Amino acid sequence: MEYLKEFKKINEPTETLLSIFIYNKKLIDIKSFFEDQLEKARNITNPIKKQKINNRLFNFIKYLNMIDGDENQIMNIIVLIDDKINLFNMTESEINTAKEYHFLNIYIKSDTFFYIDYFIDLFYNFNFIYTIKVNKNDMYIIKLNKNKDKEIMNCKISSEIKIIENIDKIKKDYGYKEIIIVYGESIYLGKLENSNINGILLIKNFMGKEICYQLYEDECMKKNIILLEKKLNELNDSRCNTDLYVFGKLKVEIKDAIECYLLKELYIEDKKLDKLKTFVDESFFNFKIIPIRSLSNGDIADQFIKNYNGIMGIKYF
């Protein structure tokens, strides 16, 4: 999806850039869907947003009406609409991914930017965490990441031993070394809690994939915060060589240090990382990046964001 990256630079002051993908949908149904969207857009209260969205949907419908061929033809496309209609056919691998992970047939989002990172993650991120959901006597192994999930096994269980066996199976068969989230409602989860199994996070409740993945990210963030605390403690040590630390503004001190290849590590508030990547070419990111996000008021990450602007570089020497 390299062809999409140039659109990451486009922004508008109102939520009028349209990011769309259409998977396995007939042309006639696509037209009907966007005619409904156009009708809904008439209710937008912001006059500038209303005019732009209406014009862009109207032009897209007009574009669809000009497509030659059978109206029952199946379409698999990615569309980015500003003042132009930028349409790209999905590749075979993208279509297969959409099929395997049961994507929506039509996705549309309006915002001040195009959802390029979302599309790239959706179609090309195959780094998954593994979870085990237990519902009474039923157990499911589900792999997931931020934007997709897939059930890869289900079976009946009659004790917590079966859960433990599948925890070991995930680690062995998939070479998985991260934390495994085990959740749901079953008497076997209570028994599992007393087994002191390493490498799992046990939640005796049902939850959606979004919350499940957020819990995983929080566990990863705890590790990053421990690393951050260690570096801040070193900074406060009188024996520390403070010249090895880089503080300042993203577009000045941090950008200069990166482009001069001075950094071996960068501790940075996660939302600032996205901003940094908009004005520093990715070819310069040849160092370890440790994203930081506060998990509770007053924690080390919160103090880092308030006291150091959420940015700290560590030089090689």
Write the layout of secondary structure elements.
Layout: E1 17-26, H1 27-41, H2 47-65, E2 74-81, E3 85-89, H3 92-100, E4 106-111, H4 116-124, E5 129-135, E6 138-144, E7 149-156, H5 160-173, E8 180-185, H6 187-193, E9 200-203, H7 209-235, E10 245-246, H8 250-259, E11 263-269, H9 270-279, E12 288-292, H10 300-308, E13 311-315
Parallel strand pairs: 5-8, 8-9, 11-12
Antiparallel strand pairs: 1-2, 1-4, 2-3, 5-6, 6-7, 10-13, 11-13
Helix pairs in contact: 1-2, 5-6
Please identify the structural class as seen in this structure. Answer: alpha+beta
Name the strands of the widest sheet in spatial order. 7-6-5-8-9
The run of helices and strands is EHHEEHEHEEEHEHEHEHEHEHE
Rg from Cα: 24 Å
CATH architectural label of the largest domain = 2-Layer Sandwich
Which range best describes the helical content: under 10%, 10-25%, 25-40%, 40-55%, 55-70% or over 70%?
A: 40-55%
- N- to C-terminal distance: 37 Å
Spans with pLDDT under 50 lasting ≥5 residues? none
Counting DSSP E segments of at least 2 residues, the number of strands comes to: 13
Classify the fold: give the CATH topology of the largest domain.
Answer: Translation, Eukaryotic Peptide Chain Release Factor Subunit 1, Chain A
Q: Give the name of the CATH superfamily of the largest domain.
A: eRF1 domain 1
Helix tally equals 10
For the biggest sheet, the summary is: 5 strands, mixed
Domain count, please report it.
3
Q: Could you name the CATH class of the largest domain?
A: Alpha Beta
**Residue-averaged pLDDT, rounded?**
95
Question: β content, as a range?
Answer: 25-35%
**CA-based shape:** flat
